Amino acid sequence: MSKIHAVVLAAGQGTRMKSKLYKVLHPVCGKPMVQHVVDTMASMQVKDIVVVVGHGADAVRAKLGEDVAYALQEEQLGTAHAVQQAAPFLHDKEGTTFLLYGDVPLLSAETLAALLTYHEEQEAAATVLTAVLSDPTGYGRIVRDEAGEVLRIVEHKDATSEERAIQEINTGIYCYDNQKLWKALAQVKNDNVQGEYYVTDVVGILRDAGEKVAAFEAADPDETMGVNDRVQLSEAEAYMRRRIVVEHMRNGVTVLDPSSTYIEAGVTIGSDTVIHPGTFLRGRTTIGSDCVIGPNADLTDVAVADNVSLTYTVMVDARVEHESTVGPFAYVRPGSVIGPKAKIGDFVELKNAKIGEGSKVPHLSYVGDAEIGAGVNIGCGTITVNYDGAVKHKTTVQDGAFVGCNSNLVAPVTVGQNAYVAAGSTITQDVPDNALAIARERQVNKIDYANRMPRKGKKQS
After folding, report:
1. How is the cofactor bound (predicted)?
2. For the domain 4-224, what is the CATH superfamily, name and number?
3. Residue 102 among known ligand-binding residues
4. Domain boundaries along the sequence of the chain
5. Phi and psi at residue 287, to the nearest 5°
6. 363 is catalytic
7. What are 365-396's pLDDT values in tens digits?
8. Is 190 within any annotated ligand binding site?
9. What is the model's pLDDT at position 224?
């Protein structure tokens, strides 16, 4: 196989998106469209990737980073002109060059590899990826000769009525012999309705030079979908979401209702895990094996170990160790680590909290900026009072401690090993190991007090 290069066109403004966000940065399944294209090339071991930027160039550079080269198209004069901006990076290289688009995010590595293989087998100067559509309106048509060879590609607005009846369309995706590409680009003219330089004209130029131009039909036309507005964005999202879910299911994950399960592109899930409806798995989330996730779990950048159960839970930038349970109706905020065999119950909020092995925060508690040891019980309604209006302070509850219901732990404070905090206490000082802390007003019963109080509806003498 020859050396492989890629040019990704991402310079268009995308006015039909009607958005302040540059078009190719709109996410599909949690990842910008152009990032999907670049990542697919990287997965195919393509080393020379040149992204042609224009509108929103700085934003694209900031998102993609330094793993690709950038060529700037300052003036939008058509696709051939855009490709020419990559010449300083590639014109002297041998091998094959992909031409791709930053707003065509659904193309799989398998389809592009098949296109590349066919291109090399045909020893073609150019091979275009085509698709057959029931309604090809708006797309460039593939015009073939009687032997099936590609004669030219004609844009819809420049096509005759006979040419518009052709259903095989140009997806805009190509493989080129790199040296022949740059020679042909130099001959492209702008004598067309739009006055632009079309990269599609390269096909005719190569044909006139006696070069072979091949065409490879995509097995799934939906993969070639471009995104120009919010409607197409939603269609691309639905397609990719389905593809991601299917891949997980084929890898041994049970997804009870794929249509109501949202898994982003960077998520990994172990075998024999069950995903219930209404679940969102986002960002860099990783799920282990034999877990039960959902219903209605929303996880962003969360690491979940094996044999974990999460129900009706929102978690962000947190970690859950093996054999723990979280939920229902728990909120686990950034910086939190839930240790092995721990239990986080209903209406519990954690923030930057470390929960030790086998510890329990069963219900109706807030634990923030805290380190909870192993084997600790946090009673219902316990609050770590971590904020004094200016600074966050840490609460430490050491191994084996028992905190009674409706307690306030006013940080900074430490509850020692095997210590007890009586229910209803407000703890403002450290509790020694093995001690019982009682910090509440002594109960006073006033006998017959109610009989001396005036009551509504009762006439006073």
Report:
1. Binds 1 Mg(2+) ion per subunit.
2. Spore Coat Polysaccharide Biosynthesis Protein SpsA; Chain A (3.90.550.10)
3. yes
4. 4-224, 312-437
5. -120, 135
6. yes
7. 999 999 999 999 999 999 999 999 999 999 99
8. no
9. 95
Closest CA to 64 of 56, 388, 124, 272: 56
Q: Is 406 annotated among the ligand-binding residues?
A: no
Question: Which pLDDT score, from 0 to 100, does residue 80 have?
Answer: 95
HEC secondary structure over the chain: CCCEEEEEEECCCCHHHCCCCCHHHCEECCEEHHHHHHHHHHHCCCCEEEEEEECEHHHHHHHHHHHCEEEECCCCCCHHHHHHCCHHHHCCCCCEEEEEECCCCCCCHHHHHHHHHHHHHHCCCEEEEEEECCCCCCCCEEEECCCCCEEEEECHHHCCHHHHCCCEEEEEEEEEEHHHHHHHHCCCCCCCCCCCCCCCHHHHHHHHCCCCEEEEECCCHHHHCCCCCHHHHHHHHHHHHHHHHHHHHHCCCEECCHHHCEECCCCEECCCCEECCCCEEECCCEECCCCEECCCCEEECCEECCCCEECCEEEECCEECCCCEECCCEEECCCCEECCCCEEEECCEEEEEEECCCCEEEECCEEEEEEECCCCEECCCCEEECECCCCECCEEECCCCEECCCCEEECCEEECCCCEECCCCEECCCECCCCEECCCCCCCCCCCCHHHCCCCCCCCC
CA 231 to chain centre: 19
Catalytic residue chosen out of the listed positions 5, 26, 363, 393:
363
Q: How far is CA 425 from the centre of its chain?
A: 45
Q: Which CATH number does 312-437 carry?
A: 2.160.10.10
Q: Residue 200 — very low, low, confident or very high, per pLDDT cuts 50/70/90?
A: confident
Whether residue 171 contacts residue 224, with contact meaning beta carbons closer than 8 Å, is answered with yes
Do you find a cis peptide bond into 295, omega within 30 degrees of 0? yes
